Amino acid sequence: MRYKAGLCTLLGGLLALHTGASATSEMAVKITPDLDGITIPYQGQPLRIQRNQDQANTISPGFQRTSRKCPPFCIQPMQLPNGVETIGEIDMLGYLERVGQGDDSVMIIDSRGPDWLQRGTIPGSVNIHYKRLSLKSAEEKNVAELLEQQFGAARSGEFWDFNDAKTLVMFCNGPWCGQSPTNIRALMRIGYPPSKLKWYRGGMQAWEVLGLTTVTPE
């Protein structure tokens, strides 16, 4: 569900909150039997993340294709090595709530390029193109800046100190997309703790299939 197309739903949800009414009993398409959605701040306004209530809704054209050339668009494994946790939509909603409540220890990263980003992304995520986390020698300075300025890592001589580093929740286009897995492996090579790396394998394709709210960055 696109943000612009979902303004009526958002306004309706705000009205329900204002009047004290519960929207749970009115919604036919919930996330779980006990959860109809979450509300997070987005661009200074509350934004409701929920499933599209139109039961005739179909997936957006960009994710209808079932077959892409492999390589590079090969099916990713279910688990990444060294204990990186693969998460699903309910887990992602939990991390989005934490970020929305001001938890600075978590960052949700959309690893895709601008062409895909303009088709919609998960509200509450930060876009960091996967090439910015490349470990090619010409780009090592850029990686160091990301580690220090955005991820909370600290330089300790020739090594990195990740004690206060953020938990990074990374995603891209889906099980056929290798961008976020590539970044996760690169971060582990420089010592980022696997326990602080989370991978939403389903990515935007699974998010769209389930009719969950998306936004288009300005």
Give the topology.
Blueprint: H1 7-19, E1 37-42, E2 45-50, E3 85-87, H2 89-100, E4 106-110, H3 114-117, E5 126-127, H4 140-149, E6 154-156, E7 159-161, E8 167-171, H5 179-189, E9 197-200, H6 203-209
Parallel strand pairs: 3-9, 4-5, 4-8, 8-9
Antiparallel strand pairs: 1-2, 6-7
Structure report:
The chain is of the alpha/beta class and about 220 residues long. It has a domain at about 70-210: Rhodanese-like domain (Oxidized Rhodanese, domain 1, 3-Layer(aba) Sandwich), CATH 3.40.250.10. It has six helices and nine strands. The strands form three sheets. The chain has a five-stranded parallel β-sheet, with helices on both faces. A two-stranded antiparallel ribbon has the order 1-2. α5 links the parallel β8 (about 165-170) and β9 (about 195-200). The longest helix has 13 residues, at about 5-20.
CATH superfamily caption of the domain at 68-208: Rhodanese-like domain
The dominant shape is globular
Number of helices: 6
Overall radius of gyration: 18 Å
